[in-house]
Amino acid sequence: MQGFLRRRTPYTILPTPLPAETGSSALNDLYFTDSPTQDAVSVMDACLHNLYDVPRAKHIFEQLRSEGRGDTFLDARVYNSLIDAYLKMVSAPTTQDREMWLNSAWELYNGMEEGREKAHPTANTYALMLLAYLRFHPDSMQAGDAAVRCGAETHDPESMLRHIIEHQIPVSLVVADRAFQSSEEANEVIRLLSRAAVNMGLAKVVNELGMAESLGRQGLDPLEDVPEAIPVMKPKKPSINVIHSEDGSVVDIDVSESPEIETEIPFNLDTLRKHLSQVVFARRVMPDDVAARQKLLEDSVYDVAVKQMEHQAKMLEDLGLDNQRGLKHVDLQTWMWAWHQKLQVRLAAEIQNLVEEEHRLGGEYLYMAQRSPSSNVAYSDKVKHALSPFLTLLKPEKLSLITILELMNLQGTGGVSDGMKTARALLGVGRAVELEHKAQMCKKNNIAIPQSQFARADTSIFTRLGYRDLQARRVAARKYMEDAEDWTSDWSQLVRVKVGGFLVDCLMDVATVTRSLADAKGEEVYSEEQPAFFHSYEYVRGHKLGVIKLNPVVAERMARDRIKTTLHPRHLPMLIKPKPWLGPDQGGYLFNKTAAMRFKDSVEQLNYLRHASAAGNLELIYASLDVLGSTPWKINRGIFEIVLSVWNSGKRMCKIPPIVSDLPEPERPENYDTDQHARSIFLQRHKLYSQQKANNHSDRCSVNYKIEIARAFLGDTIYMPHNVDFRGRAYPVPPHLSHIGDDLSRGLLLFGEGKPLGERGFWWLKVHLANLYGFDKGSFDERIAFVEQHLEDIYDSVDHPLDGRMWWTKADDPWQCLATCMEIKAAIDSGDPHSYECSLPIHQDGTCNGLQHYAALGGDAQGAAQVNLAVTDRPSDVYTFVADMVEERLREDLAKGNKQARLLIGKVARKVVKQTVMTTVYGVTFIGARAQIEKQLAARGDIPAEECWEASAYLAKHVLGSIGDLFRGAKDIQLWLTSCARLIAKSIPAERVPNACGVVEEKKRGRAAAKKSPEARLKMEQMTSVVWTTPLGLPIVQPYRTTKRKQIMTGLQTVFISDPNQPSSVNSMKQATAFPPNFIHSLDATHMMLTALECRAQGLTFASVHDSYWTHAGDIDKMSVIIRDTFIALHSSDVLNKLHEEFRERYKGYKVPIAALRGTPALKKALALARVNSDEVSRVAGNDAPEKEPELALSEGEDVEAGSAEEVEDAPKKRRALPRKPKAAPEDEQDPSEDGFYTGRFVDLLDVLPDVPQKGDFDVKTIKKSLYFFS
Acidic residues composition bias: which ranges (predicted)? Predict the structure, then answer.
């Protein structure tokens, strides 16, 4: 492993994107396709689906091809989709010109075969053209009356077989291709090719075809002669007619009984039989497919949702509770069913009207908008006329369900109480429609799922042979999956918003609920029908934000009712091991498309990921995700039953919120109207009360999701597919219930398999309990003693969890503590604890892991001692150390009579400062530190709410001051990283320097661009992101750019969205300040992945939550050795020097404007390099103070990231330089302290890139002997 990590990491280097304001180039278009082109391709895809509008798709394709745009999208799969559609048009009964469509198919194929097209034929291409010959060629015996005379050059089977062999495509892949919809046609093609092979003397091909034919014969169906089992029947309920009076009271009940006793299958059993019939069908089609049940789960989610809602509504209707009189008994499913019934009818009518309108307008579609400055309005208008191809991809019934379920899932997100942000809702619904369409395409051909692509057991994946073997297996599996799936195009943000806006607008028109007002006696007085959803605006940190809100009665039911109906399979664990990761969008769930990396609106990151994957640089990343996803889990039934009991009681307990908030409402003071201070305090307290009340509801909805998912998977072995964020940190894809969740989520989960504890495992189980309880800073012997002293409490916790001493509820992590108590008691009661098979995950957590990496990078002995890298008798606790330092400062201030010190003395516990200390090395600002401390002070409950803000500001100053000198080594590296990032973000490629200086006249889409000032031109050209490569080959692109949004009009609201296909200039401040934490996160992600791969190689079960590594208790000692070995291997690979070398290679030739260096130590060197005389150097350098802290290294006029419509962040205001009068002095007399002196002067980035800080003398190998490094 150490040799592998010391190798030169292969880099993925792509060109820097060009500014959108300056037009484009052929190279830029290849990597950064614009949104109009992507929209055109997606419209073409939608028009091809079910032959919706093939002429329109053909026209778009020919324009894209003739203009040479869209080359990124137009691969062989697109050509094959067009050929397939053309051939289907030949057979379509409504087609007028069959010859034209057949000619088009053959011409397209000939272009591919002769090299005139950029795409080359694949197995699918030859399968389609063999079908064309079989069905329509006059020489084909099967064509008969369907034969069509073709003007284009055609090919017979012998000619095509020759080309197949030339392209080295296995003939068996051709005859097994998805193009063949019937076995008769496949057999006929096999006979044609066999005859051609005989004529050509190709005995090997004849044998291959003969084998393919024999394998194609279906075996006997094992269920063919097995009769069906007679289902359990129950007496059918008599028809009940409830008669109401005018006031709503029940007058009579008419029960009509049949003379003969009728029976029916119980609903649940009937549904089960229908689903099992699909499983039987799956076994007949794919007898070796063990994934049938998972496919059923993903395939039938919307059908099951419909059945459940319909059944619930029918039950209520039979009882006469389907109207407003039964409001108290109506549940969420019944409302959703009523909305679905109305919405599907409305959608069918609206979509039909839309289709007719498009045809009436003469087929004006998206791509026809001319790409010119005057066409922006016309382009936006034409988008709405291009909606029908997308809305007809799915049936109205499915569109209706997707819209309802997505909105219900989004409620409470984005910090909006009982609602959601409009932009997020529209994008979410549009994205869900796109994903469901892609899922249907995946399901269409019943593709067998490849198994894990790990190398042979006798070969390490860290060797060259093992790595190449891993890559070859993945490439082969990916090619198989791509060839077997139908092509689909990605949608742009604009299309998603338009589709989502159309659907949500229709839902809000038809979805209603009935609300009633009761008097003091509880009797209904008034009732009215109200919208279930309404749109409004809220102000978030001074920004006006469009939101969609739920009717209060709907929000209340979300917190009470069972809501598993609203869950999509992509939100759930899997029943089988996830599909191995084969590419950036191939892996995880079987049908539902999942990305290997989660990032927001960064086409640059996506391009880097795709190119790195194609180059074979991501094999270990994919393998790591496969390891994490293949870990089996199960629900802890013992914990679940207790959780369910607490939930149903409606009481607050161990972070399970009560059904109704139990927080007392602040009392209005008597002097409210006369005392301004008293009124201010009351308003603050009442605002906090309202927020806590809203949070209680949101928290209860979150817990409801967890309980429903756990209940659904009781008794099953489940798996968590994983992907990574843009820094490489791994996360489970299911968002509601996974081991990365809170204490409740972790307490509900066990490993799917148990292992004997052994002597050391039982010892680690006790240590684990002490850690969970909060006694984690004592030595191991002290932790063991702590557990043994509390054995009676442990037994009482298990035997009387809800009516005993409740010792477990006082733990830091109560639900995990209770689960561990259960395992300890079960092990002791078994009579042989060492043989007891335990499934509980045991954790090994790093000590402030970011500081551990900084200490290892810098060889910082002092820092290493604080975070347990050094050998010690007991664990060091840096958080307690800082808390004690702060307390000492408070005592000094108390002696001076400070009011805040008096309030806080004795209350600065370890927990108060922990998060701030942990994030200090990640670049936390004073504002962030204050917010973290305020949250901890408020949680204590012994500090008045109105005092928390001021107290937290006072305390944050002391906390940051106390840790300033403690981690000097980390600060030096952080400053170096920030300085490098700032220079990179300010740099531009050498070829763009003339453009930045205004020497080259910019043209945008054929016209001269608007004149810009020198500063504006330079800012526009700063497009360079900070990019680096992790030791495992993952390219990481920082996505921070200035925000540019365009206004989109929808039927619901006007929303502002960003266009990821038009990169804007970088946010240089955010690029600089975010680089240190992102780089450290990429290192801890690498360490985790190395540990995961090594654990798999040694047969250990492994799971992780970033810097917390989990395995069975009996395997902790083995994993501890692996953790240390992988950390040593990582930090023995000269990480910082390799990063410096990568920067020098990646940014070779980039230029930095000298103006950007003002206020930095690099200015003097830059001026010297720019041949400024020595007097000027001294004078200018003397006028500019060097930067002191990374976050303060801002030049005048530097931008900060603008707040978005979706996530508004606090940011410092832009500093404005005072205007200066221009001077007419010649350049050689110009004062270098003036702004104009720097204009047009550049220096090579590599010349001013700072050197790596000198490393200390701490030897990272020392951690082998450290007991508490991870513990």
Answer: 1196-1209
Distance CA 62, CA 77 (A): 16
| CA quadruple 1231, 1236, 1242, 1243: dihedral, nearest 10 | 30
Q: How far is CA 1192 from each of CA 716, 923, 976, 979, 1252, rounded to the nearest angstrom?
A: 54, 11, 14, 11, 21
423 near 546, Cβ under 8 Å?
Answer: yes
With beta carbons less than 8 A apart as the criterion, state whether 85 and 57 touch.
Answer: yes
Q: What is the mean pLDDT of residues 742-760?
A: 95
pLDDT mean over 676-687: 86
**Distance of alpha carbon 1167 from alpha carbon 1171, whole angstroms:** 6
**Rounded to whole angstroms, how far apart are CA atoms 502 and 1079?**
42
Q: What mean pLDDT comes out for the span 429-442?
A: 85
pLDDT of res. 731: 95
At residue 274, the pLDDT reads 41
Facing residues of 124 across strands?
Answer: none
pLDDT at 722: 95
- What SS3 class is residue 1151? strand
- Return the number of other C-beta atoms located less than 10 Å from residue 908's C-beta: 23
Q: For 974, phi and psi rounded to 5 degrees?
A: -60, -40
pLDDT in the model for residue 1001 = 58
Rounded distance, CA 252 to CA 218, Å? 61
Question: Residue 1036: beta bridge partners?
Answer: 1028
Mean per-residue pLDDT, 171-199: 86
Q: Quote the crossing angle between the two packed helices 123-136 and 157-166, to the nearest 10°.
A: 180
Q: Buried (b) or exposed (e) across 481-497, using 16+ Cβ within 10 A?
A: bbbbbbbbbbbbbbbbb
Secondary structure (DSSP) of 1084-1124: HHHHHHHHHHHHHHTT---EEETTEEEE-GGGHHHHHHHHH
Higher pLDDT: 1213 or 680? It is: 680
Q: What are phi and psi of 586, to 5 degrees?
A: -125, 100
- Mean pLDDT over residues 1081-1109, rounded? 94
Is the separation of the CB atoms in 1214 and 1220 below 8 Å? no
H-run or E-run covering 517? strand 512-518
Q: What is the C-alpha to C-alpha distance for residues 147 and 939, in angstroms, rounded to an integer? A: 80
Task: Give the residue among 881, 1055, 110, 1045 at the shortest CA–CA distance from 500.
Answer: 1055
The first and second tokens of residue 759, run together, are 């002597």
Least confident of 407-416, 1161-1170, 1202-1211: 1202-1211
Its sign, for the CA torsion 870, 872, 874, 878, is negative
What type of residue is 1075?
F
Mean pLDDT of the chain: 79
- Asked if 516 and 524 count as a contact pair (C-beta separation under 8 A), the reply is yes
In angstroms, the CA 30 to CA 23 distance is 14
H/E run at residue 1029: strand 1027-1029
Q: What are phi and psi of 1103, to 5 degrees?
A: -145, 160
Q: With 0-12 CB in 10 A as exposed, 13-18 as middle and 19+ as buried, what is 544?
A: exposed
How far from each other are the two terminal CA atoms of the chain, in whole angstroms? Answer: 23
Question: What is the rounded CA–CA span in Å between residue 828 and residue 836?
Answer: 9
Give pLDDT tens digits for 52-99. 989 999 999 988 888 877 677 788 989 999 999 999 999 888 888 888
In the three-class reduction of DSSP (H, G, I as helix; E, B as strand; rest coil), residue 1158 is classed as: coil
Please list the active-site residues: 845, 914, 1107
Q: Which of 271-285, 708-722, 1117-1131 reaches the highest mean pLDDT? A: 1117-1131
What does the pLDDT read at residue 308?
57
For residue 1037, what is the enclosing H or E element? strand 1035-1037
Three-state DSSP string of 1230-1253: CCCCCHHHHCCCEEEHHHHCCCCC
